[in-house]
Specification:
By secondary structure, the protein is mainly beta. It contains three helices and 25 strands. The strands form three sheets. The protein has a twelve-stranded antiparallel sheet with strand order 2-4-3-8-9-10-11-14-1-5-6-7, covered by helices on one side. Strands 15, 16, 17, 18, 19, 20, 21, 22, 23, 24 and 25 form an eleven-stranded antiparallel sheet that branches. Strands 12-13 form a two-stranded antiparallel sheet. A hairpin with a 3-residue loop joins strand 9 and strand 10.
C-alpha cells in the first residue's frame, strides 16, 4: 500500500466529513422582504472570524423534538410554549454512536463589496487532541445573510423586539459545550433537525442536521435487538466570534493581479515515514483567476501530484484573496513593507493557531521575501510574499501525522513584473 496516497486519502476524507457538516449547517433562511433592501448585522466586515466546532456521529433516532409545555422556555409566534427533548430510541434518551470526524471550521470574512460578502473557510480536524490543517475553500454570498451564516439586520431587530413570524420561536438555549445563550431564534425542521441563531449578534449559533438515515436492527443498552433506525448526524456550534487584527486589512490588490490569468507554483511533496525511504515527489499548483473585483480576487487552485511518474490532478479548490485573507495570493506591498520581522499577529483562543511574521529574507535580485506563518499544534503553513510586488512567492507546508510527516515546498515560476 502506498503510504503517501493512504495518508492523503485519510486527510481528505476527514476534511470532507467536517466540511459537509458545516455547509449543511450554513443554510439560507427565507425573508419576506426583497433581498436587495436587506443589510447584515453591524459586525459583518473584513477581519471578522467565526469559529465553529463541527462533528459527525451516529445515534439512534428519533432525534431532537419540540414538546408542548405551558411552562416551557420557548415561545412561538402564537404564544404557545415548548420545551426541547433530545429523544432517542431507548428510554435513556439519545444514544450516541462512534464519532466519524470532528474538528473546527474557521470562517473568515475576507471581503465585503457591494451586496456581496466573501468567506474563507479553513477546516481543522482534531485527532487525539491534535489540531491538523485539512483544507480551505472560498465562497461568496449575498451580504445580508451570508447564505444563512447570520440574520439580516431588519429580521434581527424585529426578533429582538419580540415580533415573531409563523414558524419562528425564541427562547434560551444551552450549546453543546454547556454555554447558555439567553435568547435565540429556533428554525425548526420536522425531518432534518434544527438551526439556532444568537439574538445578541444574529450569528448562527448551532445546527443539528440528519445527514443520512439507515434502517436496520440495532442493540439497545440491554443488548436486546430493536427495530430502531440509526442516523448520521452533523452538528456545528459557534465557539467564537471576534475580529482578527491583520495589518493589511485596508490594502488593495496590486496592479498586476487583474492582468495575470495564472500563477504557476512548482516544487516537491514528501512523506516522511519511519522505516521507509523518503523520496520527494513532484507537485504543482495552478491558480487560475476567475474574478477580479475592486478589493478581492477569486482563483481556482488546481493541485497536481506525480506518483510513479504519472501526473495526476489531486484537488481543485476555490481560493479567495482580499483585505482580510490569510495565505492568499497577494498582499498589498505597502502593507507588507510596514510589517516587522518576528512579530506575532494573532492567536486564536479556540484552536490555538497562531499567525506571525517570520524573518525577512533578502534575495540576490534585490527583492525581499517576508513570510507569514500560520502555526497549529501539528501543522505549519508558511506563505512568503515579495515586498516589491506583493505576490505569494513561496509556499512551505508541514503536517505532522501519527504515521509520519508530510511536507510540501513550492516556488512561483512566473512572478509578475
Amino acid at each position: 500500500m502506498n503510504p503517501q496516497r493512504t495518508a492523503s486519502r485519510a486527510r481528505h476524507a476527514l476534511a470532507a466529513l467536517l466540511l459537509a457538516a458545516l455547509l449543511t449547517a450554513l443554510t439560507p433562511t427565507p425573508h419576506a422582504n426583497a433581498q436587495a433592501t436587506l443589510q447584515p448585522p453591524d459586525w459583518v466586515k473584513p477581519g471578522m472570524r467565526l469559529v465553529y466546532w463541527t462533528g459527525t456521529y451516529t445515534r439512534q433516532s428519533s432525534g431532537t423534538v419540540f414538546v408542548p409545555d405551558p411552562e416551557g422556555p420557548i415561545k412561538d409566534d402564537q404564544g404557545n410554549r415548548w420545551r426541547i427533548v433530545h429523544r432517542g430510541a431507548d428510554r435513556g434518551g439519545a444514544e450516541l454512536g462512534p464519532v466519524a470526524g470532528m474538528g473546527y471550521a474557521v470562517v473568515d470574512v475576507v471581503a465585503v463589496e457591494g451586496d456581496r460578502v466573501v468567506l474563507d473557510t479553513r477546516t481543522l480536524t482534531v485527532l487525539n487532541r491534535r489540531v491538523h490543517f485539512t483544507g480551505r475553500t472560498a465562497t461568496h454570498h449575498d451580504l445580508a445573510t451570508g447564505n444563512g451564516t447570520w440574520l439580516d439586520r431588519d429580521r434581527l431587530q424585529r426578533l429582538q423586539a419580540g415580533q415573531l413570524l409563523p414558524g419562528e420561536a425564541t427562547g434560551p438555549y444551552q450549546l453543546a459545550d454547556g454555554r447558555p445563550l439567553p435568547s435565540v431564534l429556533f428554525i425548526r425542521h420536522t425531518n432534518t433537525g434544527h438551526t439556532i441563531f444568537d439574538l445578541a449578534t444574529g450569528a448562527q449559533a448551532s445546527d443539528l442536521t440528519r445527514a443520512r438515515v439507515t434502517p436496520g436492527k440495532n442493540a439497545g443498552p440491554s443488548g436486546k435487538l430493536t427495530d430502531a433506525k440509526r442516523e448520521t448526524v452533523g452538528l456545528a456550534y459557534l465557539k467564537s466570534l471576534r475580529p482578527i487584527d491583520l495589518p493589511w486589512t485596508n490594502g488593495s490588490p496590486p496592479d498586476w493581479v487583474a492582468r495575470t490569468p495564472t500563477l504557476h507554483y512548482r516544487g516537491t511533496r514528501t512523506v516522511h515515514t519511519p522505516g521507509t525511504p523518503t523520496i520527494p515527489q513532484p507537485t504543482e499548483r495552478l491558480a487560475t483567476l476567475q474574478h477580479a473585483a475592486n478589493t478581492y480576487t477569486l482563483h481556482t487552485e488546481s493541485s497536481y501530484d506525480t506518483l510513479a511518474g504519472v501526473r495526476q490532478l489531486a484537488t481543485t479548490t476555490p481560493i479567495a484573496t482580499g483585505p482580510a485573507s490569510v495565505g492568499g495570493y497577494w498582499i498589498d506591498p505597502n502593507a507588507l513593507n510596514r510589517l516587522e520581522s518576528n512579530t506575532r499577529l494573532d492567536r486564536d483562543p479556540v484552536t490555538g493557531v497562531t499567525l506571525s511574521v517570520g524573518q525577512a529574507q533578502r534575495l540576490p535580485n534585490g527583492d525581499t521575501l517576508l513570510p507569514i506563518i500560520e502555526q497549529g499544534s501539528h501543522y505549519q503553513n508558511v506563505f512568503a510574499y515579495s515586498t516589491t510586488t506583493g505576490v505569494l512567492a513561496t509556499i512551505h507546508q508541514t503536517a505532522h501525522l501519527a504515521t509520519g510527516t508530510i511536507t510540501a515546498n513550492l516556488t512561483l515560476q512566473n512572478p509578475p513584473r
